[in-house]
Amino acid sequence: MRVRSYSFDRYVELVRDFHGYAAPGVLVGGYMVDLAYRHLHKAGLYNALCETRKCLPDAIQLLTACTTGNGWLTIHDTGRFAVTFYEKRSRQGIRVSIDTSKLDFWPEIKTWFLKLKPKAQQEEGRLRAEISAAGSSICVTRYVKVADRFIIAKDHGPVVVCPCCNETYPSSVHGLCPDCRGESGFVRLPESELESNRKTTDQTYQMASRNLNRR
């Protein structure tokens, strides 16, 4: 069973290169994307609304033109493993999710999806074989229309230069930029601490390399 234009084995390789490892969620997600596009008109322009941050967004970005970077992929994290592809103008489309009533036929998928065992106790080989065999048969589709509140305008308007740090930010944010107002997601470190961290990293890498060469 193919995943869009790829064989399953080739898709596993793509997932491993993009995601870091062949995560079951990205593999299943590939079949979900494939199923959605089999229901959509080829001539349409589609956005994606993904309901989880885990794994599924990477399948969407691997197999479609919808990415977080170009704004065609919106993540609304409800914790549900589902994605909706919808036409940009009408906002009508198709939602794909996992049909848990079908998982009894696939015990390894059921164990993984419902978290019945810790990850370390799951049988990766059998799970991947079941995903390959099941394909999109474990999915369910529903025709939907995306709510207005999820339609995000791409154009944030003009930018201004922060008088404090000299970086740009949207003019709609009045006053100083969020960082200079103390709203950033990081803490600035002194150069001395950065240099210490670099030395520690270099030493760890050199030690690992020596150990590897002794094998």
CATH architecture of the largest domain: 2-Layer Sandwich
Tally the beta strands: 7
Shape: globular
Helix-strand pattern: HHEHEEEHHEEEH
Q: Give the C-alpha Rg.
A: 22 Å
Task: Work out the strand percent.
Answer: 15-25%
Count of individual domains = 2
Structural class category: alpha+beta
Taking the alpha carbons of the first and last residues, their distance comes to 41 Å
Can you count the helices?
6
Which bin fits the share of residues in helices? 25-40%
- In CATH, the topology of the largest domain is named 60s Ribosomal Protein L30, Chain: A
Strand line-up in the sheet with most strands: 2-1-3-4-5
Query: Could you give a short account of the major beta sheet?
Result: 5 strands, mixed
Unreliable parts: none
**CATH C-level class of the largest domain:** Alpha Beta
Mean pLDDT: 89
Write the layout of secondary structure elements.
Layout: H1 8-19, H2 24-38, E1 46-50, H3 56-63, E2 73-75, E3 82-87, E4 92-98, H4 107-113, H5 124-134, E5 139-145, E6 159-161, E7 168-170, H6 191-214
Parallel strand pairs: 1-2
Antiparallel strand pairs: 1-3, 3-4, 4-5, 6-7
Helix pairs in contact: 2-3, 4-5
Key terms:
single chain; 215 residues; alpha+beta; 60s Ribosomal Protein L30, Chain: A; 2 domains; 5-stranded mixed sheet; two-stranded antiparallel sheet; 6 helices; 36% helix; globular
Structure description:
The chain folds into 2 domains: 8-150, 60s Ribosomal Protein L30, Chain: A; 159-214, no CATH class. A hairpin with a 6-residue loop joins strand 6 and strand 7. With 215 residues, it is an alpha+beta fold. The protein has helices at residues 8-19, 24-38, 56-63, 107-113, 124-134, 191-214; strands spanning 46-50, 73-75, 82-87, 92-98, 139-145, 159-161, 168-170. Helix 2 (24-38) packs across helix 3 (56-63) and helix 4 (107-113) packs across helix 5 (124-134).
